[in-house]
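Cross-check.
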Amino acid sequence: MLEETLLNHVKNISIQKDMRNKSKMIVKGCVDFFSFQRASLFSYSCLSGMGEGIYSCTSKETISLHHVKENIHDIYPIHQALINNKPVYLTIKHTKSSIPAKYVKRFAISSLAVIPVIVNEMVIGFVLVDPIQTNEPVTKHDLMKLSHYLELAVTTLESSPPHTFLVIVKSKSYNI
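Predicted model, tokenized:
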């Protein structure tokens, strides 16, 4: 039943025309269908190395992350996940030592996982997810399931230019 519901969600994403709504639906699916308390979607430019926040979602709210902008080359584990095109799980210890302290504090980050968003064989963004239980690690199986969902969810972006997420970030209107 969950698989059918998830596939219906992906279908609804695919028919969505507005890229802001499509992005919200993608990130919300990470929380609604998987065991994560929060999911955050970022765009990424392999040329500049910049990651820019788009949306963050919990079961209760979706907020804009347009104020978050960082050079991902300076955040080693996220950079490694993106250049290797592989999901990575960071324990509490690794998160606190590698993620900028201002974000660990502002967003109360403990452990998290990084999942690259790939369109046309190019990393155009990434999703950060926080597990529901901070003391329980995210399994490889969980990461693979979420990666598969993201792969399905972003297939509708393949006909769009790779900078599509950047257009969302640079937009001045956020209807949240």
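The mean pLDDT is 85. The chain has seven helices and seven strands. Passed to J.P. for a second look.
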